Amino acid sequence: MTDFTMEKQADGVAIITWDTQGKSMNVMNQQGFHDLEALIDDALADDAVKGVILTSGKEGSFAGGMDLNIIAKMRDDAGDNPAKGLFDGVMGMHAILRKIERAGMDPKTNKGGKPIAAALPGTALGIGLEIPLACHRIFAADNPSAKIGLPEIMVGIFPGAGGTTRLVRKLGAMAASPLLLEGKLNDPKKAKAAGVVDEVVPADQLIEKAREWVLSNPEIVKPWDDKGYKMPGGAPYHPAGFMTFVGASAMVNGKTQGAFPAAKALLSAVYEGALVPFDTALKIEARWFVNVLMNPSSSAMIRSLFINKEALEKGANRPDIPDQKVKKVGVIGAGMMGAGIALVSAMAGIQVVLIDQKQEAADKGKSYTADFMDQGIKRGKATPEKKAATLDLITATTDYAALKGCDLIIEAVFEDPKVKAEVTRNVLKVVDKDCIFATNTSTLPITDLAQASDRPEDFIGIHFFSPVEKMMLVEIIKGRQTGPRAVAKALDYVRQIRKTPIVVNDARFFYCNRCIIPYINEGIRMVAEGVAPALIDNAARQLGFPVGPLQLVDETSIDLGAKIARATRAAMGDDYPDAAVDEVIFWMEGEGRLGRKSNAGFYDYDDKGKRQGYWPGLAEKYPRAKAQPDLYEVQHRLMFAQVLEAVRALEEGVLEDIREGDVGAILAWGFAPWSGGPFTWLDIIGTPYAAERCDQLTQKFGPRFTTPKLLREMADKTQGFYDHFGQKSLAA
Ligand code: NAD
């Protein structure tokens, strides 16, 4: 069976239908390209064929893109000289798309050729848009839920099958930039307004409209193949184009801090391609695309942010238990977290009972959903009907009796074990015996909290991050006695609300906070040592972290840091390793510099809460050292502080699957996404080098950098984490 079939119809129109076997959406693979090329050759050679319509056999979609499993492995599969192997492969792809674009025209006169229309029933992403861009006219069905665009940049690559070169030549660099650099997706009408597709037609007339056009003897020479073509908005040496490229370069570097190789390569391909004729531009695009594929970051990002993320979302670590979909959820505590949890649950169509101590507090929690929906309506993303339906699903009350019939409870009351225990007991008096009880605690051990329940096997941690509606990761924590049904319930719930789950075992700070705290602490330690604060935060940002450690502690608040420090110190006694950090934060707390919320922290803020620069008082208390450390040393301290904690979490069995460690780190705290996560980063730099660096850092800065036993063993065998932990960890 082949994914492409052709039907030559009596009126001379050949319809090529793409229908990937065994998939709900079309994806492209190497064989697909060959099959498509063979059909195009056949249609162009057959005198009875006047033109071609390329469409999809899937209802409501054209194609989801390239099979990313293939891209992730392309470098390994490209032979002894991978760069050359990849370049030849990419140029082969260009040749096929260029054949569609030229459609048999005379190379000199542009005469002849057959019109080829793309007819998109719906979603067209990645290669699923690059192929249509090579066609002569793109028709899209008026399907508002369809997404059209080139999202490659989101997984660390860029459109490398001519999509970059064609889009820039079709729209101009300025108009193409949000689509290429941000991977912005549009519905068909917006895609038409942006100039990406040429016509939006009623879905039931899609093929007929394309047919009319094909048979109308249309002009098919692409503007860039015509004499006198000028790039919309101007090429780089045109005064207007010059400004675009200067601005784009600054914007890309400002946003990415140079940490994402694909963005830089894309910009280079666009700039250099704009200076030369089309076919040379395709070659330049191919070279930069190969450059990105050769960088380990691209396969790392694809593996973590696409393949493994999806595997976790599909339940890679779900116990084999019948469906546990949630019908009615009780949320106890309508504060910041509870209000967000109610919102995302109702948005997923789940009935919600939202409880607080006072009716006003419960109502305020519910109003968070109303405000969120109002903003959605303003931005055209929601309707008043959807708002009413979502609010209808939420009952805000103080009455525990309303929890009857709930199959899941999520508790988000104050972070106080006594309050949580009382709430647990009161809830269990009302709900049925099969209801699962979850706590959203961020610091208290699940096993301890489960003591308030007479069914600890049905007690679990479901740890959301703030703000709930924005943060895509949910950390599920198994207490010592948590049973498989509770895990399945939590995973099915996270799937319903369309977030990404990781499942970890119970331990101090679970997985994510356990790694974030040493990151923040390492930054604070450096302040005490006299390292310039700007060097600390910028070093982190240049690694691709969304915020540096000092900015992060200002955002999460210094008194919270001090509270956690006191609790940890009390629990650990003499083993407590962070006295040097506490000295700084206790002093800051004493000075009333509590972070953004008090408009005063490591940074100064203006009246509107805008950051103004570092607080000069910091330098008075901790004078800058004359000799500042090397950037790489600062970066390695910040990186190793986190990744060693991740390795220890794995060694101790808190993490059971390195995929969860990698995906969780990127989604929870923005761990250098280009690296693919802590374990992939260690694999990229190589475990022997990692162990050597740990030894050096330990010597210079102390035992917190001691090489964990597991890492040492792997270094001795020159083994990577994804080798060591086998096939299960590599892909779904
Ligand atoms: P919050 O103070 O904003 O809200 C807590 C709410 O619980 C308040 O509205 C309070 O009135 C209510 N409450 C207290 N006792 C109650 C009781 N007996 N019955 C019913 N309602 C009661 O706190 P928050 O930031 O939403 O945090 C809630 C929980 O989530 C905590 O366990 C916290 O550790 C955890 N958490 C917080 C964050 C965060 O970033 N804020 C992130 C992850 C987890």
TrEMBL record:
GO terms, biological process: fatty acid beta-oxidation
Keywords: Fatty acid metabolism, Lipid degradation, Lipid metabolism, Lyase, Multifunctional enzyme, NAD, Oxidoreductase
Classification via InterPro entries: 3-OHacyl-CoA_DH_NAD-bd, 3HC_DH_C, 6-PGluconate_DH-like_C_sf, ClpP/crotonase-like_dom_sf, Enoyl-CoA_hydra/iso, FA_oxidation_alpha_subunit, NAD(P)-bd_dom_sf
The keyword Lipid metabolism is assigned to this record: yes
Molecular-function GO term, any one: long-chain (3S)-3-hydroxyacyl-CoA dehydrogenase (NAD+) activity
Chain ranges of the 3-hydroxyacyl-CoA dehydrogenase NAD binding domain: 328-506
Domain 3-hydroxyacyl-CoA dehydrogenase C-terminal, chain residue ranges per copy: 510-605
Pathway: Lipid metabolism; fatty acid beta-oxidation
Record CDD domains: crotonase-like
Catalytic reactions of this protein: a (3S)-3-hydroxyacyl-CoA + NAD(+) = a 3-oxoacyl-CoA + NADH + H(+)
Presence of the UniProt keyword Oxidoreductase in the record: yes
PANTHER family on file: TRIFUNCTIONAL ENZYME SUBUNIT ALPHA, TRIFUNCTIONAL ENZYME SUBUNIT ALPHA, MITOCHONDRIAL
The family this protein is said to belong to: In the central section; belongs to the 3-hydroxyacyl-CoA dehydrogenase family.
Protein name in the entry: 3-hydroxyacyl-CoA dehydrogenase / enoyl-CoA hydratase / 3-hydroxybutyryl-CoA epimerase
Provenance organism: Roseovarius azorensis
